[in-house]
Amino acid sequence: MPRYKITIEYDGTKISGWQRQVNSSSVQQFIEDAIENFSQERVTIHGAGRTDSGVHALAQVAHFDLKKTFPPFVVLRAINYFLRPNRIVITDCVEIEESFHARFSAKKRHYRYMILNRKAESTLDSDRCWHVREELNIEKMQQAANNLIGDHDFTSFRAMRCQALSPLKTIDEIKIYKEEEKIIITIKAKSFLHHMVRNIVGTLVPIGLGKLAVEDMNRIIKAKNRKKAGATAPAHGLYFSKVEYNENTN
Amino acid sequence: MPRYKITIEYDGTKISGWQRQVNSSSVQQFIEDAIENFSQERVTIHGAGRTDSGVHALAQVAHFDLKKTFPPFVVLRAINYFLRPNRIVITDCVEIEESFHARFSAKKRHYRYMILNRKAESTLDSDRCWHVREELNIEKMQQAANNLIGDHDFTSFRAMRCQALSPLKTIDEIKIYKEEEKIIITIKAKSFLHHMVRNIVGTLVPIGLGKLAVEDMNRIIKAKNRKKAGATAPAHGLYFSKVEYNENTN
């Protein structure tokens, strides 16, 4: 009974997020349907992270088992064939040992948040970046972000409906840099609470605008109160960009 | 009677190109309507280049005259207000001398062509890049492109319905480089024939794939026959990226 590990890219704009739900068009549903279409097997796929509606993925990872064995390149092509014309694509597929689990074996998850920082309305990047009109000070944002590195209780950045058992998480890295009119925030951790990246970005932006002070970040962390942090940044600026596993699991 | 120079960015996906036509939604039409909406004056705007349906612009330039004088920032904001929710935006507006003409004063025009070069289907870049599955050799493409630099009769790269008086043009520069999975081709000239950039790209790609030899480029130029060059590359990979004028005209 072979297990397959797939890497998935998707445009989150017109889909209702990763997770299968009744009466919705989720990435999980589309892929499970595509697998059934080519293999005649109904499977459940397990993803490394549950992205919300509107959130994009550059390299989401998932696994599933089939009864019959197919070469991985056949699995990849067959799923992609049935995924069209949805903006979801399998970019890689390998057969992997049975102990591998896309969610539980993940060592690090990487997210990227894109901001279009200029006065003029967004055109080409409308569904790809959060448009922030006023100039952001990225040095202040980086200083504030540095307070989030390490082990913390992230209750202030946790969505009300988050199902995690504990609010304790460890952020390894946050980098903030500019590319022409865009500001890119990359963030790396073993795992995240629900809305954690968007709530962090939604707090860094008022700091970049001078509406909150750099020093407020520590106060917000210590408050352990969602109401003290900024609003949730829009979904369409967020990209699930990479998942790291042990080397022997690719 | 003030003259205004505007810089325009647009997503060409759902518009029928730059030029006003009967029963179509062109950039020119949308902007002229927006100007009328705020100023009550019906004007004709003159663009630096006529982009086709599907072609994007990062910095198209146009000019127009108004009878009444408004501060440029008011013109910019007012046009943008009435342009919404179209994916067209004025990114800059200045008042300029009457001798300035967006089309005739242009010294250099820059285009950029984006190719997504990978096996997997396109998702996030579907309307932004030409998807070419087989690996392109950009060194060969650059070698072939170098033959196009300078003064040539570009009949082989000229659309049938091109209205230019002469097929003689001068290309100043073609650069081809890679950014992760994307290949970017930038091209600079005083002016171009209709479809010239897309026909050049449509010839460079078979050279990059090894279907045509680098040496074929000279033969194709000398043939002065549209049928000898490659097919027209898709519109949605093309960006009108910059127009240069004399310094005193911004």
In short:
Chain A is α+β, with helices and mostly antiparallel strands and 250 residues long.
Characterization of this structure:
Two copies of one chain form a homodimer. Chain A is an alpha+beta fold and 250 residues long. Chain A is 22% helix and 29% strand. In chain A, strands 1, 2, 3, 4, 5, 6, 7, 8, 9 and 10 form a ten-stranded mixed beta sheet that branches. Chain A folds into two domains: 103 residues, Pseudouridine synthase I, catalytic domain, N-terminal subdomain (Alpha-Beta Plaits); 133 residues, Alpha-Beta Plaits, CATH 3.30.70.660. In chain A, α1 crosses α2. Chain A is built from five helices and ten strands; from the N terminus they run βαββαβββαβββααβ. The model of chain A has no long low-confidence stretch (mean pLDDT 96). Chains A and B meet through β4 of A and β4 of B.
Question: What descriptors fit this protein?
Answer:
homodimer; 250 residues; alpha+beta; Alpha-Beta Plaits; 2 domains; 10-stranded mixed beta sheet; 5 helices; 22% helix; globular
